[in-house]
Write a structure and sequence with these properties.
The protein is an all-alpha fold. The chain contains six helices and no strands. The longest helix is centred in the middle third of the chain and has 69 residues.
Length: 222
């Protein structure tokens, strides 16, 4: 409680020492503005570039009016500047009709994109059962192929062991060479079997065609 009272007393004593009308800082007066227009020296190289352009003349005319001796007609933009301003306005500030038309086109494009996506999803969902069935069939065929290869490999290993004897290590080079020879012979037999089946199928097709068209099978009379 004593500390706040002491601080208040010190502040009151300092105010009484300085006096009611005294102050320790005096602000400088504001800079006086010339009553008339001021034009920079065109020949002075230190003159800022922005004071040499038409914007500075427009600023002097806006501040001093006719006293600036600036022709009001010279402040209007030229034909080229007007075209640039119009092009900028059309690009960045389009009309309400153009904005509405652009918005409608954007909404229509988004709606078409959404419909196309929904149609694609519907088509994919319609194909999904068949795709699942095909995938299951491929998996089943893969499993059956692996099983058949495993059984074929086991048969070949058994045949190789019968030829070389069961005391031979299956990991030996002699056993692996015999196993490769047996695999080659089996592939050759399968290839010959497929060729034979193709020939039989071709002959059956030709016989069926001849049976359907007997006139074609009869040789021409001399």
């Amino acid at each position: 409680m004593a500390a706040p009272v002491r601080q208040t007393y010190n502040l009151l004593g300092r105010a009484a020492t300085l006096g009611p009308g005294s102050r320790s800082y005096r602000a400088p007066p504001p800079p006086r503005r010339s009553p008339g227009p001021w034009w920079p020296d065109l020949d002075d190289p230190l003159t800022p570039r922005w004071q040499l352009g038409p914007r500075y003349a427009a600023k002097q005319f806006a501040r001093h009016g006719v006293a600036s001796r600036v022709a009001a007609g010279s402040l209007w933009p030229s034909q080229e500047q007007l075209r640039e301003l119009e092009a900028e306005e059309r690009e960045w500030y389009p009309r309400l009709e153009a904005m509405q038309e652009s918005l409608r086109a954007q909404q229509m494009a988004e709606e078409q994109k959404r419909q196309a996506r929904e149609q694609l999803i519907a088509e994919c969902m319609a194909k999904m059962p068949q795709m699942i069935e095909n995938w299951r069939r491929r998996q089943q065929e893969h499993r059956e192929k692996e099983k058949a290869d495993k059984e074929r490999r086991a048969r070949l290993q058994a045949e190789a062991q019968e030829r070389l004897g069961y005391h031979v290590d299956p990991r030996s080079a002699r056993f692996q060479e015999l196993l490769q020879d047996l695999e080659k012979q089996q592939r050759k037999r399968l290839k010959e079997e497929k060729q034979r089946q193709k020939k039989e199928a071709r002959a059956a097709a030709m016989a069926a065609a001849a049976a359907q068209d007997p006139a074609a099978s009869v040789p021409p009379s001399s």
